[in-house]
Design goal:
14% strand, three-stranded parallel sheet, 246 residues, 9 strands, TIM Barrel, alpha/beta, 35% helix
Length: 246
Amino acid sequence: MIDLHCHILPGIDDGPLYPGESVAMARQAEADGIERVCATPHIRHDHDVRIEELAARVAALNGDLEREGCATRVLPGGELAESQTAALTGAELDAVTLGGGGRWLLLEPGPGPLGGSLLTVVDRLAARGFRSVVAHPERHLGPEYVEILESLCRRGALIQLTADLFLREETAGTMAGLAERRFCHVLASDSHSPEHGRPPRLSEGLARLGAIPAVAPYAGWIAHDAPAAIVRGENVVPPWEGSEGH
């Protein structure tokens, strides 16, 4: 498996402070069957993430993992705030594509409910040659969220839901509702710590997702095919393309 959204790099944003914590996260991911983790630090005004340093930071963490005997490896990426996209050069955007594939960007919606500005950003990124994976829309629900998600999907954007929220009693219903509408192309952990919050695990969330009739036939595509194509920078077409909800 591939975890496309994880704040695993140490000392860079609101993820782990020290390399040992990052190694602990990778070991948890390894135990869950996750072979690759995209490091997605916040590319946002309130975090001083220097894009030109990311490749070296990823390489350093992979060196730590190799020395510690952890088989899971880290891939480049970033969680790009909707508000920051226009300020980045094409080379900077390329540097934070998921897996370094040069195509797919993990796009964080602005605060509050999903709005039309997100559609504009997706269109502008597409005009620059990039496609969008919209991060955790379950945190941005509002009166027009269905229409916005439908518009995003028509534009070729992909939707990333958070695996751990399928397991929590207070959020499971919302997550199932999104999945029933097929607003779910990939699951990711969005983990920040080996000890607190969401763990770097996917398997239990994927099992819950696979029990939802609307997406059960596509569980393998969501779990494996789509993430693998994203990090390779390939085109991704949902297998239910043209069905109700898209």
